[in-house]
Amino acid sequence: MQKYLSLTENTDFQRAYHRGRSCARPALVVYSNKNRVGICRVGITTSKKIGNAVERNRSRRVIRAAFRAVSAEYPFKGNFDFVLVARSKTKYLKMEKVRLAMVECLREVGAI
């Protein structure tokens, strides 16, 4: 399993949104941007459109578990900043469905 850190700075999120490559699926949206930090960094966002705090937290947990499974299974082609955005469908899906959508998106943006 590859090591990764959390994205915490707003500027890192904005850089991924504006300069990075994106891929959208009904389960989630993936923004990826190469970094020079030397390690992959991940940020997960859920808006209030998703639902109340319980539903947003469940969406984040499902996305985090899916990312852990993907990073253990596939090696990344470099160091990236990933911003994973939950969509309204995410709160109803199991981790495996989100993982499949994440693999498709990461392939499309060229990370795996």
Structure notes:
With 112 residues, the protein is an alpha/beta fold. 41% of the residues lie in helices and 24% in strands. It is built from 3 helices and 5 strands, in the order E-H-E-E-E-H-E-H. It has helices spanning 10-19, 53-73, 95-109, and strands at 4-6, 21-24, 28-34, 40-45, 80-86. It has a 5-stranded mixed beta sheet with strand order 1-4-5-3-2, with helices on both faces. A hairpin with a 3-residue loop joins strand 2 and strand 3. It is globular and about 35 Å long. It starts with a strand and ends with a helix. The model has no long low-confidence stretch (mean pLDDT 95).
Q: Determine the strand fraction and express it as a percent band.
A: 15-25%
Rg is 13 Å
Structural class: alpha/beta
User: Helical element count?
Assistant: 3
Overall mean confidence score, pLDDT: 95
Helix-strand pattern: EHEEEHEH
Short descriptors:
112 residues, alpha/beta, 5-stranded mixed sheet, 3 helices
